[in-house]
Amino acid sequence: MLRAMSGQERQPTEEELRAAYEAELKKVRVEDVVVQTVLSLISLGGRKAGLAPGSEDERDPEQLRQAVEAVRTLLPLVEPALGPDAAKVRDAVSQLQLAYARIAGEPGERAAPEPAPSEGEEPSGPGPAQSSGRLWVPGQ
Question: Residue 127 carries which DSSP code?
Fold first, then answer.
């Protein structure tokens, strides 16, 4: 009691720390770790796309591509756990895919977004997703 009153409590032993860690591991579900991984990859992908404020010098199309591919692979495993938030995650992945299409092949330069065609005007040439070769187009 004297120790507690003086503010000097003893440090837990290695065995106590291990037991506490084991107790916490029992509570963790794999899907929780996968969800956290997906969210971390989206956040990192945003930085590698230069979308986060102050991250423009971190742009790396290959790292962005890897982040997008990893999320696309993991997302089906956790969509049920995400519930209604799955739509927000899919939207974030779509934004990263669009960013990749804009910056792929242009290392070192910030790609400007393509201007939208005027109403009634047909877009000229393939869009960024199609020209990247990642969009499946029937008959092509």
Answer: -
Residue 72 domain-assigned? yes
Of the candidates 95, 91, 82, the residue with the CA atom closest to the CA atom of residue 52: 95
Is 67 within the bounds of a domain?
yes
Compute the distance between CA of residue 78 and CA of residue 133 in angstroms, rounded to an integer. 27
Interatomic CA distance for residues 80 and 93, integer angstroms: 17
Number of domains in the chain: 1
> Under DSSP, is residue 48 helix (H, G, I), strand (E, B) or coil?
helix
Higher pLDDT, 137 or 12: 12
Task: State the residue for tokens 């003893």.
Answer: 10
Q: What is the pLDDT of residues 19-78, one digit of tens each?
A: 999 999 999 999 999 999 999 999 999 999 999 889 889 999 999 999 999 999 999 999
Domain around 39: 28-107
